[in-house]
Amino acid sequence: MLIAAIIAICIVLLVLAFLLPRLSRHPQRGVDTVLGAGQKGAGAAPGKLGHWLQKPFRSSRKATNRSAAAGRQGRGKLPL
């Protein structure tokens, strides 16, 4: 279920960044903040466990940021 939610967020950010590049920054930062808080909380676990628990949040943050960047980059390549 969590994977489907991250995929949906990536698609929404991609479309939003393509249609409204400047206005897409705020939702991207919101998603980044939420996932960052989860990553920070998971990192509080001791030792290697904390590192392992952070990984899903870190990969999700990377995916959402790449998705929004790709939308803005695609919009920038339009001949308009």
TrEMBL record:
InterPro entries: DUF6411 (IPR045636). This is Uncharacterized protein. Residues 56-80 are annotated as: Disordered.
